[in-house]
Design brief:
The complex is a heterodimer of chains A (about 350) and B (about 280). With about 350 residues, chain A is α+β, with helices and mostly antiparallel strands. Chain A is built from 9 helices and 20 strands. Chain B has one domain (about 35-275): MetI-like (MetI-like fold), CATH 1.10.3720.10. Classes of the chains: A alpha+beta (about 350), B mainly alpha (about 280).
């Protein structure tokens, strides 16, 4: 395999006694859209800041394009970043903001103006050159920040929760803009977020971090279907986690025997995605859990129903609108939840 | 229409104060500048004699120039001397240290400015401790009193704590992400200072400089006790004029010229601080 664009080896960062990043190894290929995801305080932003040279690693090494970057100051790296707050310069116009990186690289004025014009047009900002950035809408500011980072034509772009300050409808639109931009440019995007919907919608590969470590790396689909452990499964959401004991291809969850063909005997945790659950009024022929309806939530075209399981655990099942009508659920009403034998994924038992 | 008694009751003290002690005296002073003095007594009149006399004298314009130039130098000097300290307080120390430093910068105001100037008189004297120390090194003695240098030391004593406080709060208020964004876009720390930090803190830096200008322009303690009144500044000219033969109308002319100057400078500075830049 060729040298990856970015290679992190045993990268560490600690603040006093607190270890923010505990020795991670990661390779990022050229042209990849990678999302680093995890709850707040998991070390994802610290990792990105070390890549951009805004934090000095406490240990380990960073290679970009095969070159060791540990001691290269931020302003000598070609690692532009889009901040959560965007960090646009309020005292400069749109054009001057976008021009900033080119000016620092010493490009002559004519070339700067040309390249700025190209990027403003590309992001639909033509005509805004002389506006002040605080006179723009949230979505426009977002695009100015993108233009400012991309105008220098870098090999990669870092994005630190860039959409978290936007309204929901703008988030979806900007996801489209970002995906298209990344494909058209063919450069690497490293996207840090705590939102699994953003990460799963755009990324080729997702890195899940927790407590300063990489917990799982993989394609969004694989992470969703086959989370490695309870931490990932809970973080990804929209799934049901059961802990029980397996004996002879059957798992005993709180007294209910559920088939789990091919699983090794012993304690196990399984995960079943909400969209693999079947909700029925009558007890089906297969093994099923009896659960009490709690509430429902509309998520776009589908509905997530929430139930309370026999052990008091929260269970989720995704149903269609038509199914919901037939089920006519009311809080307290009992239903039976079942799934196909191939639906469960057996996870590594943590703790 | 009913008068909102509550609202006016609270505003009344301020209105009365402003009317009695600012607007009133100001109008009286403007009127007075047209009065006549005969046999050491002022008589209300409407003549331009005082304006004629002051505006045509070179000693007035000399004093005006000295005062203006020194106040400008004080503003520039205070801004430059204060900036490294403010920068360190804003970016290089913890919040606790910064809070203590700002408290310590307020402490000088506990003692009267006049007392601090007397202290400088002792320190700067030809036989004072500073010359004594320099003497050990085989240099001096310097006459630092009764000079422009002495005046400037006094001005700095007056304005530096305030300028540092204004600059520090302004610099500390800059969004750190802006500074990191500048590095991230390829600006070295030095270019970041000039391209991002100074523009972002522009308002505080200008307000600091304006305060330094205003305080120095109107001050009479430093040019009198440390500058030896030579050459006289406008404030000293006012004292001299009122003392000599009840020439209050002439002093009023000087005072009005000072107020107009300060007003123009303040308006121009606020315009520069908040004004929109054209690209």
């Amino acid at each position: 395999m060729a040298e990856p664009l970015v290679r992190l080896t045993d990268l560490k960062k600690s603040y006093g006694n607190f270890e923010a990043v505990k020795g991670i190894d990661l390779e990022i290929a050229a042209g990849e859209f990678i999302a680093i995801m995890g709850p707040s305080g998991c070390g994802k932003t610290t990792t990105l800041r070390m890549l951009a040279g805004l934090e000095a690693p406490s240990g380990g090494e960073i290679f970009i394009g095969g070159e060791r970057m540990n001691d290269v100051p931020a302003h000598e790296r070609d690692t532009p970043m889009v901040w959560q707050s965007l960090a646009l310069f309020p005292f400069l116009s749109v054009r001057e903001n976008v021009e900033f990186g080119l000016k620092m690289r010493g490009l002559p004025k004519r070339e700067r103006r040309e390249r700025v014009a190209v990027w403003l047009e590309r992001l639909g900002l033509e005509g805004f050159e002389k506006r002040r950035v605080d006179a723009l809408s949230g979505g426009q500011r977002q695009r100015v920040a993108l233009a400012r980072s991309l105008v220098t034509e870098p090999k990669m772009l870092f994005l630190d929760e860039p959409l978290s300050a936007l309204d929901a409808h703008l988030v979806i639109r900007m996801q489209g803009v970002l995906s298209k931009l990344q494909k058209d440019l063919g450069i690497t995007f490293v996207y840090v977020t705590h939102s699994q919907s953003e990460a799963f919608a755009m990324a080729d590969r997702v890195v899940i971090m927790g407590h300063g470590e990489i917990v799982q790396t993989g394609r969004p689909k694989d992470i969703f279907r086959a989370p490695r452990n309870r931490f990932v499964a809970e973080f990804v959401g929209r799934n049901n986690i059961f802990a029980g004991t397996v004996a002879g291809g059957v798992i005993n969850v709180d007294g209910t025997q559920l088939p789990l063909p091919g699983a090794a005997d012993g304690p196990a945790e399984i995960v079943v995605a909400a969209d693999r659950m079947t909700v029925s009024l009558e007890r089906p022929n297969t093994a099923a859990l009896e659960a009490e309806f709690v509430s429902e939530e509309f998520v776009g075209t589908a509905i997530i129903c929430y139930f309370e399981g026999p052990g008091g655990e929260e269970l989720k099942a995704q149903v269609t609108e038509r199914e919901l009508e037939l089920l006519a659920p009311e809080p307290g009403k009992h239903f039976f939840l079942s799934w196909e034998p191939d639906a469960p994924h057996v996870m590594a038992v943590t703790s | 229409m009913r008068i909102d008694g509550y609202r006016y009751t609270w505003r009344l003290p301020l209105i009365v104060w402003q009317a009695l002690f600012f607007i009133g005296p100001l109008m009286l002073m403007v009127a007075m500048s047209f009065w006549l003095v005969r046999n050491y007594r002022m008589t209300p009149d409407f003549v331009f004699d005082n304006w004629d006399r002051m505006m045509s004298r070179s000693f007035f314009w000399d004093a005006y120039e000295v005062t203006l130039v020194r106040a400008c130098v004080a503003a520039v000097l205070a801004t430059l001397i204060a900036f490294p300290a403010s920068y360190a307080l804003a970016f290089k120390v913890s919040d606790t240290v910064r809070r203590w430093a700002i408290f310590l910068l307020v402490v000088p105001f506990f003692t009267s400015y006049l007392v601090r100037i007397y202290a400088w008189q002792v320190l700067l004297a030809e036989s004072g401790p500073i010359n004594a120390v320099l003497g050990f090194g085989g240099i001096g003695p310097f006459s630092m009193l009764n000079s422009g240098f002495g005046t400037m030391v006094g001005y700095m004593t007056l304005v530096l704590p305030l300028v540092i406080i204004l600059q520090t709060t302004s610099l500390a208020g800059i969004d750190r992400n802006l500074i990191e964004a500048a590095w991230n876009l390829g600006a070295s720390p030095v270019r970041t200072l000039f391209r991002v930090i100074i523009p972002a803190a522009k308002v505080g830096l200008i307000i600091g400089a304006v305060f330094a200008f205003i305080l120095s322009f109107g001050d009479f303690v430093s040019p009198f006790y440390l500058g030896g009144s030579k050459p006289p500044t406008l404030s000293i000219l006012i004292i001299d004029t009122t003392k000599s033969g009840q020439q209050w109308p002439l002093a009023a002319v000087v005072a009005i010229m000072m107020i107009v100057t300060l007003f123009v400078v303040a308006v121009a500075a606020v315009g520069a601080a908040y004004g929109r830049r054209r690209s």
